[in-house]
């Protein structure tokens, strides 16, 4: 899977240029981090990539096919291969449903998909959810719980399980650990890293926290006011040529 973003702009109004002429490329199995301060356009980029929001200028293609195509059938095809994890798992899980039902939503939407972890046939729907819970390090017996009976970190694991269920080729994570405390953040980042190694999916990881980005990603893009001000491989993070804004982020995170 390759993701190519070329000259992408998204203007909400004359004065709000959320994205301004953005270009980057992610190869299959890579993890790319998007870092930038509040309001820099990170979530806008995520929503556009998910096909949740339109874009006018520029081009986004996955495996050579455009995102947010005009035809519904193509959009559906696209949505099968891209999943998203949001900052706040609480708002994405229906509080009235036991978690096994929430986990199965994507598979219910795309009945034609049989993920590889379901090679064993004859599993009940609940058992499928249990398999998925195990993949993200939760106990099977949790399937009957409701979101209100889980911790923040457990809820985020559930939303990761749900996103992984249809084996996306691209996983977009928008501040997935921002609402969690530090030790749980690290656990979730480790989990994402391990899952990526196993599945070879491409991850676009959005965060205002450059430490989280450098832990998970081998490539980093720095966004500021809707523009990419810096773009580098992890090995180049301390190079002199880094943009002053990148340097200030590194300094503020005290990872110098
Ligand atoms: N639906 C919208 N209508 C108008 N302007 C919007 C809309 N959504 C976002 N914006 C504006 O676009 C810019 C980028 O917003 P965005 O949410 O992408 O930032 P962000 O980098 O995700 O910030 P944060 O770190 O706070 O989540 C901001 O100036 C914001 O006010
Ligand atoms: Mg955001």
UniProtKB/TrEMBL annotation:
Residues 3-250 form the ABC transporter domain. InterPro entries: AAA+_ATPase, ABC_transp_ATP-bind, ABC_transporter-like_ATP-bd, ABC_transporter-like_CS, P-loop_NTPase. GO terms for molecular function: ATP binding. It holds the Pfam family ABC_tran. Keywords: ATP-binding, Nucleotide-binding, Transport. PANTHER family: TRANSPORT ATP-BINDING PROTEIN. This is ABC transporter ATP-binding protein. It comes from Halalkalibacter kiskunsagensis.
